Amino acid sequence: MSIKIGLLGFGTVASGMPFLLKENKDKITAASGTKLEIAKVLVKDDDEKKRLLAAGNDFNFVTNVDDILSDDNIAIVVELMGRIEPAKTFITKALEAGKHVVSANKDLIAMHGKELIRLAQDKGVAFYYEAAVAGGIPILRTLANSLTSDKVTRILGVLNGTSNFMMTKMVDEGWTYEAALKKAQELGYAESDPTNDVEGIDAAYKAVILSQFGFGMTIDFDQVVHQGISSITPDDVAMAQQLGYVIKLVGSVEETPSGIFAEVSPTFLPKSHPLASVNDVMNAVFVESIGIGESMYYGPGAGQKPTATSVVADVIRIARRIKDGNVGKRFNEFIRETKIAHPDDVKSHYYFAINTADEKGKMLCLAEIFNSEDISFEQVLQQKANGEQARVVIITHSVSKSQLVNVTEKLQAVADFKLLNTFKVLGE
Amino acid sequence: MSIKIGLLGFGTVASGMPFLLKENKDKITAASGTKLEIAKVLVKDDDEKKRLLAAGNDFNFVTNVDDILSDDNIAIVVELMGRIEPAKTFITKALEAGKHVVSANKDLIAMHGKELIRLAQDKGVAFYYEAAVAGGIPILRTLANSLTSDKVTRILGVLNGTSNFMMTKMVDEGWTYEAALKKAQELGYAESDPTNDVEGIDAAYKAVILSQFGFGMTIDFDQVVHQGISSITPDDVAMAQQLGYVIKLVGSVEETPSGIFAEVSPTFLPKSHPLASVNDVMNAVFVESIGIGESMYYGPGAGQKPTATSVVADVIRIARRIKDGNVGKRFNEFIRETKIAHPDDVKSHYYFAINTADEKGKMLCLAEIFNSEDISFEQVLQQKANGEQARVVIITHSVSKSQLVNVTEKLQAVADFKLLNTFKVLGE
């Protein structure tokens, strides 16, 4: 007997699946307890190019999703189309038809995961999506299976390969944001509209999913604050280096006394921090917890084979659970009431870059503003900027989100100061 | 209903278990599907000190293992005594009594795992040991559950915290081996007899277990070649740095066309390699595979809470499988016929440090010896050593174990050359 799979989509990742299933057949069959077989592949057009890609395989291309949904021989549907629609409709129909579903669609799961998970539960079928976060890194299953004994206090992740590639160029080679983006587009890492990658939206989708597995709470996408890398200047990068830091786009989810807080933002990482040496398109998830303490999971965040490997691991797990008779289990069984942190409880060190007239008394005035919000300095650097301007760079001690809002408003209200940038700083 | 646990030993790790079970009670109970309860703890002497440690807990100390083995209410036995005996006898008896067993005992599992695993299978009980490799890092479960879809080609690991702490001092601060060892002993990282840690024996135990999970093959401990860090000199460290490398004690298991090969040896890692920045007592396992490509799992390799976290994760998994009715499953289900690699197939770049009389023709003679074994140079550095001696440092291109043996013999046969050290070099 074999378990038959219906593939929705035959793009980069999907076309990597036949490779893995063939190349690693014995191990996969043994682990599944049965043969896995791709039976049908949904494509828009059943054209020559796809036939070439599929050469040597036994599956059929279909152009109507019903050919898969109504096929009683297909037990598992793998959705690799991306975007919200028609993926959402197809997954919904597949779950309704009693099929188990594997997806790598982070946008969809972050935006509509709740209802799809509920539907899967109602139907007693599996809905797994390891590949949706950090592609090849098995972070979701690790959080669900191994860190069950532990209590996670914070997750920090370099979750977007495109922006990390760009930040690596900006940090290691002093490139501007614009030059780094151009290179990323030339190499096919960034799309012509790079918004999702560079503005932290893609990483925010992943933070939503990580909050479920790490903290048992389902935060909404809209509740994830996100700030991208487009405002980072070579001056910021140089300042970071001088002060002992590397800037990266970091997604973070943490639990405070009042609840969890998730955000994606450029972050100053101490050079010795394990995330600081995660370069190029690689991803990593750094977990802080009361038991293990600090652990990190590093690997490719995207790409055909890494993503297909995670997808096939999900398929194997479903096949095995079908055999073991416990396939209805949720991918993530850790569920608590969702509570969002109060801004007073969310604290971090911060970097402020401020331009000011190079006149007597400006530093005093600046110190007074920070002091009025009870914010103290950890490092201060004043440099001659161009002309009559001086640049002041401040790394603060711990500051709450409430304090941050207040001090930012006060700084913006003083005409003499120009607040260039504010970024999070990870304390040592 | 609750599941009752019998603890064998109440040392550092064991006394961390009540903390985790209490601190993380809700999550652990939900994941287990039942309450977990330590019922009895086996100790040598039921003394006052232990009573203090155990204050506030409900379990009883016992001094006779039979009080646990014959207690039908105890379903899971957790062995945290270490060493071979009496741990082996106790685990054997526990399995024979139909109890599930969790152990963190790498020595025992590396030396006698095969028979214990077989016994567990015969009895239809679970025998799990996540904590035996790299303490807090969930590497075994990750290999068993997530990399099932992948084919591992090589595993490289910084697997021993004590020696890595020492290497970090030797590399970052230029300490001698002796100074680093003294410090490690002062801090309690190294025992008064540090052999197991510094000679690569402890790491070799872990390589045995990793070979099972990564490659499905059970290599014997005696088949793991191990070389320690005691022969590494400040000169070697300085040379490595000059050539772009960091030296660490690395355990490696790789598959060649003829079979697998495992060894533990000081290894030159390119500075940009993710393992190169794993410092102090931290461990990491770097996995190369056909699907994911490169992934790394980083965390504490020892310590009370990290190790207890891995142990409790195993206990949760067993509790859950008892509930799901599939508790007899092996921890590692990936099994192939064990084949050991032929020395011709095991290849690496190498570092040679050689002293020679500072006379004409010596470099020519050296080049002829390497050339006679078909070994070519990647980097060569000649320096004035003390007095009439010159030091030659060579990084070779790929060399097989057979070539390595031959060239070493030839070098040792020439009275003019003194072969100071030979270490593996990881190619970029």
Automatic annotation (TrEMBL), chains A, B:
Keywords: Amino-acid biosynthesis, Metal-binding, Methionine biosynthesis, NAD, NADP, Oxidoreductase, Sodium, Threonine biosynthesis. One of its GO terms (biological process) is threonine biosynthetic process. It is an enzyme of class 1 (oxidoreductase). Residues 138-316 form the Homoserine dehydrogenase catalytic domain. NADPH binds at residue 106. It comes from the Bacteria. It catalyses: L-homoserine + NADP(+) = L-aspartate 4-semialdehyde + NADPH + H(+). Pathway: Amino-acid biosynthesis; L-threonine biosynthesis; L-threonine from L-aspartate: step 3/5; Amino-acid biosynthesis; L-methionine biosynthesis via de novo pathway; L-homoserine from L-aspartate: step 3/3. GO terms for molecular function: homoserine dehydrogenase activity; metal ion binding; NADP binding. Its EC number is 1.1.1.3. Its cofactor is a metal cation. PANTHER family: HOMOSERINE DEHYDROGENASE (PTHR43331:SF1). This is Homoserine dehydrogenase. It comes from Streptococcus troglodytae.
